């Protein structure tokens, strides 16, 4: 059987680019032919997920229907598994999964399992207002016995600024903003932090972060490699 990864991306485009690089980096390949077969759909016209989640039923339905159309396109193109490198979009993905026959890798559930395996108990979750306010991580973490902590309102404002005003705007990101966020998590007694927004994954790829942080998109990349029956590069096996 030929396995093919479908990447439902464009949310944002740079995060999709970083995700594919994560997949390449984590595949133990020594030739082109040993890498993951992938089809990348970068739907940059997807409406903003946070605005939709915090908006009307109609706005939420518009995003759901577009995600479903994209997933069906990948399914129809012969993909055997789908990865969506956008945390906030996971608000819609269980509904999308009900309508297609190939599996969608659930980045948040996989991250919850990863932290549980590491013995973590109090992670701080750094994500968009949509991700935080809908409790996406809090729910999945609670299911595996982990108490998720969210930033204070002041720190959350810094998270959103880093995501929207820096990375989505094409900037590298302000390390001072991240330092303030990190201090907030430490003050709340967190034993680790989760990069729960793919723009923060982009930030982390450009700035050195301590091992305190687990990158949800990196976890997704590892699961995508394994789902396509390729070996993980040893350096990335935890």
Describe this structure in words.
The chain is α/β, with parallel strands linked by helices and 238 residues long. Helix content is 51%, strand content 11%. It contains 11 helices and 7 strands. It has helices at residues 13-26, 49-53, 57-76, 90-98, 107-118, 129-133, 136-142, 153-167, 175-187, 198-206, 216-227, and strands at residues 5-9, 38-42, 81-83, 104-105, 123-126, 192-195, 213-215. The strands form 2 sheets. It has a 4-stranded parallel beta sheet with strand order 2-1-3-4, sandwiched between helices. A 3-stranded parallel beta sheet has the order 5-6-7. Helix 1 links the parallel strand 1 (5-9) and strand 2 (38-42). Helix 1 (13-26) packs across helix 11 (216-227), helix 3 (57-76) packs across helix 4 and helix 5 (107-118) packs across helix 11 (216-227). The protein is globular.
Order of SSEs: EHEHHEHEHEHHHHEHEH
Helix content: 40-55%
So how many helices?
A: 11
The total beta strand count reads 7
Q: Report the end-to-end length measured between terminal Cα atoms.
A: 28 Å
The name of the CATH architecture of the largest domain is 3-Layer(aba) Sandwich
Give the SSE layout.
Blueprint: E1 5-9, H1 13-26, E2 38-42, H2 49-53, H3 57-76, E3 81-83, H4 90-98, E4 104-105, H5 107-118, E5 123-126, H6 129-133, H7 136-142, H8 153-167, H9 175-187, E6 192-195, H10 198-206, E7 213-215, H11 216-227
Parallel strand pairs: 1-2, 1-3, 3-4, 5-6, 6-7
Helix pairs in contact: 1-10, 1-11, 3-4, 5-7, 5-11, 8-9, 8-10
């Amino acid at each position: 059987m030929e396995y093919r990864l479908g990447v439902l991306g464009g949310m944002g485009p740079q995060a999709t680019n970083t995700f594919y690089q994560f997949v390449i980096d984590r595949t133990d390949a020594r030739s082109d032919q040993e890498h993951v077969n992938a089809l990348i759909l970068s739907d940059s016209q997807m409406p903003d997920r946070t605005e939709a989640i915090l908006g009307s039923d109609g706005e939420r339905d518009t995003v759901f229907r577009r995600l479903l159309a994209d997933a069906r396109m990948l399914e129809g193109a012969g993909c055997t598994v789908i990865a969506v490198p956008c945390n906030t979009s996971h608000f819609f993905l269980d509904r999308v999964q009900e309508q297609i026959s190939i599996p969608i890798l659930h980045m948040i559930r996989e991250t919850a399992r990863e932290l549980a395996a590491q013995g973590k108990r109090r992670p701080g979750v750094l994500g968009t207002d949509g991700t935080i306010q809908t409790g996406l991580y809090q729910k999945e973490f609670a299911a595996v016995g982990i108490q998720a902590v969210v930033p204070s309102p002041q720190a959350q404002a810094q998270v959103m600024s880093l995501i929207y005003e820096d990375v989505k705007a094409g900037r590298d990101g302000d390390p001072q903003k991240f330092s303030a966020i990190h201090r907030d998590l430490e003050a709340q007694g967190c034993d680790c932090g989760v990069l729960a927004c793919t723009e923060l994954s982009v930030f982390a790829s450009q700035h050195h972060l301590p091992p305190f942080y687990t990158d949800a998109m990196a976890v997704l990349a590892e699961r995508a490699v394994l789902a396509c029956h390729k070996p993980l590069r040893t350096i990335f096996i935890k």
